[in-house]
Amino acid sequence: MTTTTNLQYQMTPGGALTGRWRVPGDKSISHRAIMLAAIAEGETRISGFLEGADALATLAVFRQLGVNIDGPDGGLVRVRGVGMRGLQAPAEALDLGNSGTSMRLLAGLFAGQTFPVTLTGDVSLSRRPMRRVTEPLALMGAQIATTADGTAPLVITPTAQLKGVDYALPVASAQVKSSVLLAGLYANGETCVTEPARTRDHTERMLTTFGYSIRRQGLRVCLTGGGRLSGCRLTIPADISSAAFFMVGASIAPGSDVLLEEVGINPTRVGIVNILRAMGADIELIDRRTVGGEPVADIRVCYAPLKGIQIPVDQVPLAIDEFPAIFIAAACAEGETILTGAAELRVKESDRIAVMANGLAQLGIDAEPRPDGIRIIGGQLGSTAATGAIDAHGDHRVAMAFAMAGLRASGIIEIHDCANVETSFPGFATLAANSGLNIVEQRV
User: Fold this and answer.
1) Predicted model pTM
2) Can you point out the beta strands (E) in 26-153?
3) Which of 205, 236, 346, 382 has the most Cβ atoms closer than 10 angstroms to its Cβ?
């Protein structure tokens, strides 16, 4: 599943974003849809599935475990679930490519199986911390070995019986919460997770859609093991994390006016909207409705001058994946933007604080990285002609964020190591070019 790294973007300055379109399906929801459909009883039909490398890695894993899956074909997938105990032992290690979501969630789901599993990934994934997942799972009786550094590969050995746990998350993490809850499906008794701050609740919503009882009170969510899931029909909304790049692009480029269709606006994911509005962005949510158990809306964004802000700490977990795009907005805003409470950005596909600060500095922006955030003073974005190409470090969101910077740059921007954009947003460069971004995709 490893992606090559011989793709780069060249951005010619200027342009504006216009038109209406639907960005690809939500990555977080696509992962969870396949996982739960596979262990449900009966058939599940999914529309809007993200055909990006990360979600396809999850799909491929369940085929290796004996699940019959048709598609994807234009976002349509049909999964014939095998029930909670119907997965089969894989013949070899399961390669999850670049997908941290797959590895962390599947560690929980596989902890309760009766066969051994080894989870591997590419170089980037093999650097990411996994103890945040393996430690709470160990409290449930799971046996998961990692490297000495607490990274992949994960070697999961079956245990006689998992036991329910009452776990307080040390940091807000939807992936850790979801991993523990998925293990809880196979545990004796009740499993509860308490969050320090609200994180995305796609797992809880989807479990309910599959007919599994969930109990939530404030920041605490519980379930009882030993139940069953039933196949259903699911529609996956457009991914707000992918829409975020066009929201920022339209906000910073004079003359822009875009309508992004059927975007998920789950209240645990709308930090990007709240933060951009606080900066002065012109954003309108139109035709709010529910699709597949998730709230959605069409999002209209028009250009508006932005101002720097102190980003509210309570918005950080609601926008954790969107900060590379937000940093570009901050670079184009008047005044100072300060982010704190976001140490989680250090352990994403790259160290997003360091990588974004370095790239912004190459473009002449005053960007001061801090242990848990960054300070950015808005100014004129420059060119990489004198400083050399920006290195995206294989991070899809970094690559797409700097692509949008071309709208306000004074010269050409080159971005290297962009191939992993396909993990979350297949066809990004084509859609961006059609919407008005001066982007050329180059294979070298």
Assistant:
1) 0.92
2) 41-47, 68-73, 76-82, 94-95, 117-120, 143-145
3) 236
